[in-house]
């Protein structure tokens, strides 16, 4: 079984997230479930130069318990301390095959400022507005999520939503695909940035009118995911494979 296309996709996802300012430096990771017992996840090595420079080789095949998924997979690579974020999210909902854990400063700042992310806009970013409408929960502990128990605690705080803010820490975004998990994180970040911007000029954050939702259609994955992803990859100046 070759996992090269999936490794390439996950590496691209890490680079897209970094290029959007969601993963400054060396912290953050993306994963993709492969089967009942295994996933691909971004690992660290002694040649790691950070999320923005993630290479397909940095994506390693591991079992849900953090051991190598195949011979040699962890030679020279270290599984993230926060593997539990990915594993517990995937175990809680098998539809979540992809998980992004990132440290976007705008989202962390908005939460620390006491701002609840709400649907303050509509057609500006319909997927983001719909995400906010469903609620953006907060896991109130600022800890490193390095045990199954803490992972389960974070998942409980998600309350069935696909995203959660980890206070003083970052976010977790879960979806059926890597593209969706990253795009969802980008939408969450855009919402946080706009909220902070409005607040910065002493503006009030108000939900859009209920009557507007009827005219904020789901434009479909061809537009919301495929086209949006092509754009994100093109921004990097590399070819999607
Ligand atoms: Zn983290």
TrEMBL record:
Domain of life: Bacteria
SUPFAM superfamilies documented for this protein: AraD/HMP-PK domain-like
Gene3D superfamilies with a match to the protein in the record: Class II aldolase/adducin N-terminal domain
GO cellular component, one term: cytosol
InterPro entries: Aldolase_class_II_sugar_metab, Aldolase_II/adducin_N, Aldolase_II/adducin_N_sf
SMART domains: Aldolase_II
GO molecular function: L-fuculose-phosphate aldolase activity; metal ion binding
Name of the molecule in the record: L-fuculose phosphate aldolase
Organism: Mycobacterium innocens
């Amino acid at each position: 079984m070759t996992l090269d296309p999936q490794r390439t996709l996950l590496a691209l996802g890490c680079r897209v997230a970094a290029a959007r300012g969601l993963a400054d430096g060396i912290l953050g990771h993306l994963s993709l479930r492969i089967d009942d017992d295994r996933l691909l996840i971004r690992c660290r090595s002694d040649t790691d130069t950070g999320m923005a420079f993630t290479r397909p080789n940095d994506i390693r095949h591991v079992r849900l318990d953090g051991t190598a998924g195949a011979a040699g997979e962890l030679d020279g690579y270290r599984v993230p301390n926060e593997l539990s974020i990915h594993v517990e999210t995937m175990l809680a909902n098998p539809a979540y095959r992809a998980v992004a854990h990132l440290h976007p400063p705008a989202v962390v700042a908005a939460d620390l400022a006491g701002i609840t992310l709400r649907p303050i806009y509509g057609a500006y970013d319909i997927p983001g507005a719909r995400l906010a409408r469903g609620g953006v929960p907060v896991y109130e502990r600022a800890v490193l999520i390095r045990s199954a128990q803490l992972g389960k605690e974070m998942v409980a705080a998600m309350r069935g939503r696909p995203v959660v803010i980890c206070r003083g820490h970052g976010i977790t975004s879960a979806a059926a695909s890597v593209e969706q998990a990253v795009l969802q994180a980008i939408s969450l970040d855009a919402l946080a940035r706009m909220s902070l911007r409005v607040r910065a000029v002493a503006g009030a954050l108000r939900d859009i009118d209920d009557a507007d939702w009827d005219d904020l259609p789901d434009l479909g994955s061809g537009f919301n995911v495929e086209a949006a992803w092509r754009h994100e990859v093109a921004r990097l100046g590399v070819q999607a494979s």
